């Protein structure tokens, strides 16, 4: 008795698309300490102190600023982590996600 050779099936033409990118936006408020915002940018996005400080000033002056553009799942996770951290410190910092338009 001979055993049948296993057959391998392939699906030609499957292409993977890049994940959609989303902007992580900090919204300015009158309660969240600038030091907290700077620290969160350094901790969660690995900015230098100088860059984080400049972004924080931009948020304060403009009312909001894009702090990163990331794949949706990563952007969402960062937003959740920062919001939880802000609430645990008693700050009402708002994080918004928007699709990046090409």
Overview of this protein structure:
- α1 packs across α2.
- Helix content is 42%, strand content 21%.
- Computed over alpha carbons, the radius of gyration is 21 Å
Largest sheet: 3 strands, antiparallel
How many strand elements? 3
CATH structural fold name of the domain at 30-99:
Ribosomal Protein L30, Chain: A
**Top CATH class of the domain at 30-99:** Alpha Beta
Helix/strand-derived category reads alpha+beta
How many DSSP helices?
Answer: 3
Question: What is the strand content?
Answer: 15-25%
Average pLDDT taken over every residue: 92
Estimate percent helicity: 40-55%
Low-confidence stretches: none
Comma- or semicolon-separated keywords:
alpha+beta, Ribosomal Protein L30, Chain: A, 3 helices, 3 strands, elongated
Write the layout of secondary structure elements.
Elements: E1 21-27, H1 34-45, H2 49-62, E2 64-71, H3 72-88, E3 94-99
Antiparallel strand pairs: 1-2, 1-3
Helix pairs in contact: 1-2
Short description, anyone?
With 102 residues, the chain is α+β, with helices and mostly antiparallel strands. It has helices at residues 34-45, 49-62, 72-88, and strands at 21-27, 64-71, 94-99.
């Amino acid at each position: 008795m001979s055993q049948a050779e296993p057959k391998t099936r392939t699906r030609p033409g499957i292409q993977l698309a890049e994940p959609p990118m989303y902007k992580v936006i900090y919204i300015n408020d009158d309660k969240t300490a600038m030091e907290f915002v700077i620290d969160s940018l350094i901790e969660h996005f690995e900015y230098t102190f100088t860059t984080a400080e400049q972004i924080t000033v931009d948020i304060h002056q403009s009312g909001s600023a894009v702090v990163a553009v990331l794949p949706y799942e990563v952007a969402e996770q960062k937003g959740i982590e920062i919001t939880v951290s802000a609430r645990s410190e008693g700050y009402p910092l708002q994080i918004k996600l928007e699709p990046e338009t090409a």
